[in-house]
C-alpha cells in the first residue's frame, strides 16, 4: 500500500512530506502548504489544487478511521483558508475555485459521522462560501457551485437546517442564492436548483417554511408562473408558424419544457405543505391557468362579447396585482393574448394528466365543466369568487353581489336539468321517447351556459379533420381520470351516474343509470367516421375515443347504453369489418400485417400521458411518414398503410364490442401460444413421421435431430432417454415463418431459415435458426422439402381462413380455425402422455425413404379454396365425418383407421387421405354469456371442412391463390345438414382451446 | 478552457452500485480507494481527446433524487450519454435494469447513447451476475457493455471514453442536432484543437481568473 502511494506521488521533492497519505501527519503537512501559499499565484496554483484534493481524501479517511484528523482540521480552522483562496482575484483562481468546490462536494457528500458534519457547518464558513460571488460566467465554476449547493441540500434535515437558515436574521442563503439561478440557460443548473428547492421544502421546520412562504414564495412562484406563460406563448407561436413540420425539434423542446414545469409544480404540491400550496395554487390559477389556458378555450364564434369581457377583467387584474411582491413588470404581458384553442386543449390535458392537487384541479374542472357564461364574462376574480361561493353551498348573503350570483347559480342548476340529456334513464323507455331524446336540441342551450365545455364539445367534431378532436378527447379523459376531481363534478358529464329511485308502490328501490348522451353521440360520431374508407381520423384518436367511450357508459361492470346508441356501435362494427374485408388478400403479406398489427396493439393500451408528451401531435395531422411521426398518430400513406389502418380499426372496434359485452377475446391472436409445442416438451412420437437429419449451423456445430412437422410448427426433437418412442422438442419454429431452399451442390441438403414469430416481447429479428440440414439421402431430403413447403402454405392458409371468418367473409362458416384451436390438440395429447402412453401420435412404421409426419398431408394437396368459389359451390360433406373421427380417436386412444390408411400408401404424393387438421369438438367451449347480446355476429361461425383435392406435387410456395383456384374444381356441392347443427351450437359461442 | 464539444452524461442505476465512485474515479483518478475507503461525488468534469478534438465531459449523478419525478425526467432529457450501472455482486441491481432502461428511453431524446456497466468487477468471488448475462442484455437492447471496477479503475476510462466516441460518431453522422443544447451537447466557444492537457486541468488561463470574485 505504501509503495503504491509513493509511486503515485504527484509532488516533486517533498517538504518533509509524510509517507502515509492517509494520516494526521499528512494533513498537518498539507496545512503547512496552505499556510505558506495563502496568496494564489501562477506558480503555486498546481500545488494548491493538489493539496485541496488530498485534503478531501484525508478528511473522508479520517471521518471513517481517525477522529483526530477532523479535530485538527477544525482546530486549525482550515475552512477559512478555503475562503481566503476563493476571495483572491489573481492567479487563475477559477481553476483553484473549481477544485475547492469539488473538495467541498466530496467532503459533504461522503461524510458519515454526524458530529463531523455539524462541526464543519458550525462556524458559518459554509454560508460565507455560499454567498461568495464566484465567476458564474465560467460554466465550470457554475456547474461545480450549483452541485455544491445541491449536495448541501441533500444533507438538510430538521437538525442541519439551522446551520443554513438563521431564524434571527431571517437569512437562508442556501435557498435564496440558489433560486437566483432558477431560470439559468443551462438545463442542468436549472434542474439542480429545482432539486435543491424540493429538498428544502421537504424539511419539516415551521419557521423555515414560514420564511419561505413570507419572503420568497410569492416572487419565486410568480416568476415560475410568468416563465411558464412565456414558454407556452413561444410554443403557440411555434405551432402557428409551423404547418409544414419544419421545427419539430424546437417544438419538442418547448413541450418537454412545459412538462418539466408541470412536474416540478406537481412535485412541490405533492409535498403537501399547506401554506406553500396555497400560494402556488393561487398564482397558477390567477396568473396562468385561467387567464391564459382556459380563456383560450372561448369559442371563436362567440368570441366578440366574451373576449371583451375577459380582456377587460384581465386588464383590471393587471392593474392591481394580487401581491406587491409581484414586481416583475412582464408578469402580465401574456394575459392579454391567447393561445390557439388546439394548444390550450393540449396544455390543459397535460395539466390534468400531471397535477392532482385537489383544490387546484377541482377549481379548474369546475370552471371548464360548469361555468356560466355570464359569470365568466365578469373576469377571473369573479369567477373564482363565484366558485368559492358555489363550494360553500351557495349561502345566501346580504352583499349586493351575492344576490346576482345566487340568481345565476339557480339559473345554472335549472338549465342543467333542462338542457343536458343525461338525466334520462335508459331503462323502461320507449323507442319513441328515445328518439325524442336523441333529437332534442341541446347544442344551443349548452353553448349559452357552458362556454368552455361547449368549445371542447365543438372540438370533437372531426368531419374535416381530427386535429383538435384528439386534444378534446385527451382533456375529457384526463379530467375524468384525475384523482383530484370529486365525483360530483364529473358525474353525469364524464362518468355515468347511478341513482336510486324509490317506487311509490313498494319499498324497493330501482337503480337508474344515466350518462352524458350528448357527449356519447359526439364520440359515436368519431367512431363511425373512423370506419369509413377515406376518413381523416387518426388511429390514436379512435383509440382514445373508444377508451373514453367505455368509461362514459360502463357502470358496475356492465354497459348502460341506450338502444339507439347500441345500434350505432353495431353499425360501427359492421362497417369496420366491411372496411377490412376490402383489404383481405389485397396484399401478399396480409397475414403478416394482420398478425403484426395485432401484436403491436397487444403491447398495451394507449397511455394518454405518454401521448400528451409527444409534441408531434401538436402540428396539424399529416400523412407522410417522412415526418417521423408514429403510424397511429398520422394518417395512412399508401395502400399498405390503409390496409394496416383498416386492420387496426377492426381490432379496436372489435375490442370495444367485447368490452361492452363483458367478454374476453377468444379468437385472437391467430396463434394461441398456449397450445403450441414448447422447447423441452416431451412428445409421444410413436407412429409419427420423423425425418432424421443433421443440423449444421453457421458456426459449424453439428447436431443430430429428428424433424417433425406439425400443423403450425416445425419441431426438431431428440429422442427422450426416459421413454422409447418419445422425443424432446429442442427447437420449435412456425411453419409460416420458414424459408427452404435446396442446395445446388448436394441433393441431400436443405438450407432452412426459421424467422422469429412476430411478438410484442422482443424486438430481436435475428432468425431463430439459419442452418443447413443434411438428410440421409436425397429422397428423404425431397420429402422434407415438400412437407415443409406445403406446411408453410397450409399454415398460412389456415390463418387466412380464420381471418376470413372473423371478417364474416361468406363461405367461412365452419369449425374454428385449427390455427387457433387445432394446435391445442397436439399439446393436449402430449401433455396427457401419462395416461395415454400407448396411443400413437405419429405414424412411424413406414417404408424407407418416407419420413413425413402422419398429420401432414401428402405433397401437393391443397386444402384451400378460393373463398367465393367455395361459397358458390357448397361445402364438403366430409367435414363432420372427419370431425367425428378425430374426436372419436381422441377418446378411444385409437386412430387406426386413419393411420393405417396413411401408412399403407405413405409416400405416394397422389394418394388422397383424410386431412388431419380436424378440430376435436371438445375443444370448443361456450363463451361466458354476454350481458347484452351483441355477440352472435362476432362469434365465429363453424365452417365446413375445407375440401380435399389431389394435385401434383407443387414445390412453389409463392403462388397460393393460383394453385388453389386451379385445383379445387371438384368440391363437393351440398351443405350437409350435420354442419348446420354444429353451426347452431357454435353460434353464440366463442371458441377456446383446451 | 477551450473545447470542441461538451457532452453531458448522467449516471443511473440502483443505489449502492458505485455510480458516484465511478464518476470520481474517472474525473479525478487520484482517488484510488484504499482501506475500503469509498469516495464518491455527484458531479465531475474532465477533458478527453477524440479524433484529436478536445471534448469536455460533464457527468451528473442523479442519486438521491429519484423521489422527484420532475428531476429525473429533466436529467434524462438534458443528457447526450447515460451510464446505466449495476453491481455484478447483487443480482437485484441487474434485474432492475429494464425499469431503468424504460425510464431512460421514455424521457431521454432518442439519440442518447446508453452504456451498460457491470461495476465491481474486482469482487469476482462474490459475483452473482455472469458477464455473459450483461452482454446478452446489452445486445438485446442495443447497448454497449463493459464491466468495470471503480476500485481498481479497470475499464473506467474506457467506459466513459467509448460512450463519448459513440456520441462523437453520431455527431459526425449528423444524427444529433448539435445546435440544440437540450440534447446534452454543446459546441465549444471556439473550435481550436489544443494539446491534450492533464485531465481536469484543462487550459485555464489567467483571463478567466480575472473575472472571478
Describe the 3D structure.
The complex is a heterodimer of chains A (994) and B (213). Helices cover 52% and strands 7% of the residues of chain A. In chain A, the strands form three sheets. An eight-stranded antiparallel beta sheet of chain A has the order 5-9-8-7-6-12-11-10, with helices on both faces. In chain A, helix 13 runs parallel beside helix 15 (274-294) and helix 28 packs parallel to helix 32. The longest helix of chain A is centred in the N-terminal third of the chain and has 35 residues, at 206-240. The radius of gyration of chain A is 38 Å and the shape is flat. Mean pLDDT of chain A is 71; it is low at 1-14, 301-335, 394-447 and 815-994. By secondary structure, chain B is α/β, with parallel strands linked by helices. In chain B, strands 1, 2, 3, 4, 5, 6 and 7 form a seven-stranded mixed beta sheet that branches. In chain B, a hairpin with a 2-residue loop joins strand 2 and strand 3. The longest helix of chain B has 18 residues, at 156-173. The radius of gyration of chain B is 17 Å and the shape is globular. Chains A and B meet through helix 3, helix 6, helix 9, helix 12 and helix 14 of A and strand 2, helix 2 and helix 7 of B.
Structural class of chain B: alpha/beta
Largest sheet of chain A: 8 strands, antiparallel
Strand proportion of chain A: 5-15%
Number of strands of chain B: 7
- Looking at CATH, the homologous superfamily of chain B is P-loop containing nucleotide triphosphate hydrolases
What Rg of chain B do the Cα atoms give?
A: 17 Å
Strand content of chain B: 15-25%
CATH A-level architecture of chain B: 3-Layer(aba) Sandwich
Low-confidence stretches of chain B: 192-213
Write down the overall mean pLDDT of chain A.
71
Number of strands of chain A: 12
Amino acid at each position: 500500500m505504501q509503495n503504491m502511494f509513493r509511486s503515485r506521488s504527484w509532488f516533486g521533492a517533498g517538504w518533509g512530506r509524510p509517507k502515509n497519505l492517509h494520516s494526521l501527519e499528512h494533513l498537518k503537512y498539507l496545512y503547512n502548504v496552505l499556510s505558506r501559499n495563502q496568496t494564489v499565484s501562477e506558480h503555486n496554483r498546481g500545488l494548491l489544487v493538489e493539496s485541496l484534493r488530498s485534503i478531501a481524501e484525508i478528511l473522508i479517511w479520517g471521518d471513517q478511521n481517525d477522529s483526530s484528523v477532523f479535530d485538527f482540521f477544525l482546530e486549525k480552522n482550515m475552512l477559512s483558508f478555503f475562503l481566503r483562496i476563493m476571495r483572491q482575484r489573481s492567479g487563475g483562481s477559477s481553476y483553484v475555485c473549481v477544485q475547492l468546490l469539488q473538495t467541498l462536494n466530496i467532503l459533504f457528500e461522503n461524510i458519515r459521522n454526524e458530529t463531523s458534519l455539524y462541526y464543519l457547518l458550525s462556524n458559518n464558513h459554509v454560508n460565507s462560501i455560499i454567498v461568495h460571488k464566484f465567476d458564474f460566467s465560467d460554466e465550470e465554476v457554475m456547474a461545480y457551485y450549483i452541485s455544491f449547493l445541491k449536495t448541501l441540500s441533500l444533507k438538510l434535515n430538521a437538525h442541519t437546517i439551522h446551520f443554513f437558515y438563521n431564524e434571527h436574521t431571517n437569512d437562508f442563503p442556501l435557498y435564496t442564492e440558489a433560486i437566483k439561478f432558477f431560470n439559468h440557460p443551462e438545463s442542468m443548473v436549472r434542474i439542480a436548483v429545482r432539486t435543491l428547492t424540493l429538498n428544502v421544502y421537504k424539511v419539516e421546520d415551521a419557521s423555515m417554511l414560514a420564511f419561505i412562504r413570507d419572503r420568497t414564495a410569492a416572487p419565486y412562484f410568480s416568476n415560475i408562473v410568468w416563465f411558464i406563460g412565456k414558454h407556452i406563448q413561444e410554443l403557440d407561436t411555434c405551432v402557428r408558424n409551423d404547418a409544414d413540420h419544419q421545427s419539430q425539434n424546437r417544438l419538442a423542446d418547448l413541450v418537454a419544457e412545459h412538462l418539466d414545469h408541470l412536474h416540478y409544480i406537481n412535485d412541490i404540491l405533492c409535498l403537501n405543505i399547506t401554506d406553500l400550496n396555497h400560494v402556488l395554487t393561487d398564482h397558477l390559477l390567477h396568473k396562468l391557468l385561467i387567464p391564459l389556458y382556459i380563456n383560450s378555450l372561448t369559442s371563436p364564434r362567440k368570441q366578440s362579447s366574451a373576449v371583451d369581457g375577459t380582456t377587460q377583467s384581465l386588464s383590471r387584474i393587471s392593474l392591481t396585482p394580487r401581491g406587491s411582491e409581484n414586481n416583475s413588470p412582464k408578469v402580465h404581458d401574456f394575459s392579454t393574448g391567447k393561445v390557439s384553442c388546439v394548444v390550450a386543449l393540449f396544455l390543459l390535458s397535460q395539466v390534468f394528466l400531471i397535477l392532482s392537487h385537489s383544490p387546484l384541479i377541482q377549481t379548474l374542472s369546475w370552471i371548464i365543466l360548469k361555468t356560466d357564461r355570464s359569470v365568466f364574462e365578469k373576469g377571473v376574480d369573479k369567477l373564482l369568487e363565484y366558485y368559492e361561493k358555489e363550494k360553500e353551498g351557495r349561502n345566501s348573503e346580504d352583499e349586493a353581489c351575492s344576490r346576482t350570483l345566487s340568481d345565476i347559480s339557480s339559473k345554472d342548476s335549472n338549465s342543467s336539468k333542462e338542457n343536458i340529456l343525461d338525466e334520462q334513464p335508459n331503462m323502461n323507455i320507449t323507442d319513441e321517447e328515445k328518439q325524442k331524446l336523441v333529437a332534442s336540441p341541446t347544442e344551443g342551450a349548452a353553448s349559452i351556459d357552458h362556454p368552455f365545455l361547449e368549445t371542447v364539445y365543438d372540438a370533437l367534431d372531426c368531419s374535416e379533420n381530427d386535429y383538435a378532436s384528439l386534444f378534446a378527447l385527451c382533456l375529457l379523459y384526463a379530467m375524468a381520470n384525475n384523482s383530484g376531481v370529486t365525483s360530483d363534478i364529473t358525474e353525469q358529464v364524464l362518468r355515468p351516474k347511478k341513482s336510486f329511485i324509490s317506487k311509490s308502490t313498494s319499498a324497493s328501490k330501482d337503480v337508474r343509470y344515466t350518462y352524458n348522451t350528448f357527449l356519447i353521440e359526439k364520440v359515436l360520431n368519431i367512431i363511425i367516421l373512423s370506419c369509413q374508407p377515406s376518413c381523416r381520423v387518426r388511429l390514436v384518436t379512435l383509440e382514445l375515443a373508444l377508451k373514453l367511450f367505455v368509461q362514459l357508459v360502463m357502470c358496475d361492470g356492465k354497459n348502460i347504453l341506450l338502444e339507439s346508441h347500441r345500434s350505432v356501435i353495431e353499425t360501427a362494427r359492421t362497417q369496420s369489418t366491411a372496411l377490412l374485408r376490402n383489404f383481405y388478400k389485397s396484399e401478399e403479406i396480409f397475414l403478416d400485417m394482420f398478425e403484426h398489427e395485432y401484436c403491436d396493439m397487444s403491447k398495451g393500451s394507449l397511455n394518454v400521458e405518454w401521448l400528451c408528451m409527444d409534441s408531434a401531435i401538436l402540428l396539424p395531422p399529416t400523412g407522410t411518414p417522412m415526418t417521423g411521426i408514429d403510424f397511429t398518430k398520422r394518417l395512412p400513406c399508401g395502400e399498405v398503410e390503409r390496409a394496416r389502418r383498416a386492420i387496426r380499426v377492426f381490432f379496436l372496434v372489435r375490442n370495444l364490442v367485447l368490452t361492452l359485452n363483458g367478454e374476453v377475446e377468444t379468437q385472437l391472436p391467430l396463434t394461441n401460444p398456449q397450445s403450441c409445442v414448447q422447447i423441452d416438451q416431451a412428445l409421444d412420437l410413436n407412429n409419427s413421421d420423423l425425418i432424421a437429419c443433421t443440423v449444421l449451423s453457421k458456426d459449424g456445430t453439428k447436431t443430430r435431430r429428428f424433424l417433425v412437422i406439425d400443423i403450425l410448427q416445425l419441431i426438431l426433437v431428440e429422442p427422450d432417454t426416459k421413454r422409447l418412442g418419445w422425443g424432446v422438442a429442442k427447437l420449435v419454429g412456425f411453419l409460416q415463418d420458414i424459408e427452404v431452399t435446396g442446395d445446388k451442390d448436394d441433393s441431400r441438403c436443405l438450407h432452412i431459415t426459421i424467422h422469429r414469430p412476430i411478438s410484442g416481447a422482443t424486438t430481436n429479428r435475428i432468425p431463430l435458426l439459419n442452418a443447413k440440414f443434411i438428410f440421409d439421402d436425397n429422397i428423404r431430403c425431397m420429402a422434407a422439402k415438400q412437407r415443409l413447403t406445403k406446411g408453410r402454405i397450409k399454415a398460412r392458409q389456415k390463418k387466412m381462413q380464420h381471418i376470413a371468418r372473423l371478417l364474416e367473409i361468406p363461405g367461412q362458416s365452419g369449425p374454428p380455425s385449427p390455427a387457433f384451436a387445432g394446435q391445442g390438440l397436439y399439446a393436449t395429447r402430449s401433455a396427457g402422455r401419462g395416461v395415454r402412453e400407448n396411443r400413437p401420435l405419429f405414424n412411424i412404421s413406414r417404408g424407407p425413404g418416407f419420413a413425413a409426419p402422419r398429420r401432414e398431408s401428402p405433397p401437393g394437396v391443397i386444402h384451400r379454396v378460393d373463398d367465393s368459389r367455395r361459397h358458390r359451390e357448397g361445402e364438403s360433406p366430409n367435414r363432420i365425418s372427419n370431425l367425428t373421427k378425430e374426436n372419436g380417436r381422441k377418446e378411444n386412444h385409437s386412430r387406426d383407421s386413419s393411420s393405417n390408411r396413411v401408412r399403407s400408401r405413405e409416400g405416394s404424393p397422389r394418394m388422397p387421405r383424410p386431412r388431419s387438421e380436424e378440430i376435436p369438438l371438445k375443444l370448443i367451449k361456450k363463451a361466458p354469456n354476454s350481458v347484452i347480446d351483441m355477440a352472435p355476429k362476432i362469434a365465429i361461425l363453424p365452417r365446413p371442412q375445407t375440401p380435399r383435392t389431389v394435385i401434383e406435387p407443387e414445390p412453389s410456395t409463392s403462388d397460393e391463390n393460383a394453385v388453389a383456384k386451379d385445383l379445387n374444381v371438384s368440391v363437393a356441392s351440398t351443405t350437409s345438414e350435420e354442419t348446420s347443427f354444429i353451426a347452431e351450437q357454435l353460434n353464440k359461442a366463442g371458441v377456446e382451446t383446451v | 478552457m477551450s473545447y470542441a464539444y461538451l457532452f453531458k452524461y448522467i449516471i443511473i442505476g440502483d443505489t449502492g452500485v458505485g455510480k458516484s465512485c465511478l464518476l470520481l474515479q474517472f474525473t479525478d483518478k487520484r482517488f484510488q480507494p484504499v482501506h475500503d475507503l469509498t469516495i464518491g461525488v455527484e458531479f465531475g468534469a474532465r477533458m478527453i481527446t477524440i479524433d484529436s478534438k478536445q471534448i469536455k465531459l460533464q457527468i451528473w449523478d442523479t442519486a438521491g433524487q429519484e423521489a422527484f419525478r420532475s428531476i429525473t425526467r429533466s436529467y434524462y432529457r438534458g443528457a447526450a450519454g447515460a451510464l446505466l450501472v449495476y453491481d455484478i455482486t447483487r443480482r437485484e441491481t441487474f434485474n432492475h435494469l429494464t425499469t431503468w432502461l424504460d425510464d431512460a428511453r421514455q424521457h431521454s431524446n432518442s439519440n442518447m447513447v446508453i452504456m451498460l456497466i457491470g461495476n465491481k468487477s474486482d469482487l469476482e468471488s462474490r459475483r452473482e451476475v455472469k458477464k455473459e448475462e450483461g452482454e446478452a442484455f446489452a445486445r438485446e437492447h442495443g447497448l454497449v457493455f463493459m464491466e468495470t471496477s471503480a476500485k481498481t479503475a479497470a475499464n473506467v476510462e474506457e467506459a466513459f471514453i467509448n460512450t463519448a466516441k459513440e456520441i462523437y460518431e453520431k455527431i459526425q453522422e449528423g444524427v444529433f442536432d448539435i445546435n440544440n443544447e437540450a440534447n446534452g451537447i454543446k459546441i465549444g466557444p471556439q473550435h481550436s484543437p489544443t494539446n491534450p492537457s492533464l485531465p481536469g486541468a484543462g487550459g485555464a488561463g489567467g483571463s478567466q481568473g480575472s473575472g472571478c470574485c
